[in-house]
Write the C-alpha cells for this entry.
Amino acid sequence: MGEQKRKEDAKNNFIFGKKNYKWMFIGLGFIALGFILMSGGGSDDPNVFNPEIFNWRRIRLAPTLVIIGFGIQIYAILLNPDKTDSEK
C-alpha cells in the first residue's frame, strides 16, 4: 500500500506550474517575433548592395525583442508557482 501512494505522489509532482509555462510561451513568442523581424533584407543579385539590411527594425528592434524574450524565459524558470499573491 505504501508503494502505491508513493507512485501517486511522484506522478503529480511537476517542477513547473501552469504559470511558469504561460510565461515560457510568452518568452518564446518574443524570441520568435525577434527572429522573424531580423529575417529578410537580402538581395537576389550578389553584386547589388541592398541598404534595407541596415534599417532600424533589423538593427535595434529585433535584437531587443530577442533579449527581452530571453529575460522572460529566465523569469519563467525562476518563478515560484506555489507562491500566491497574499504571501507577498
About this structure: Residues 14-41+49-81 form one domain. The helical segments are 2-11, 18-38, 56-78. The chain has a mean pLDDT of 86.
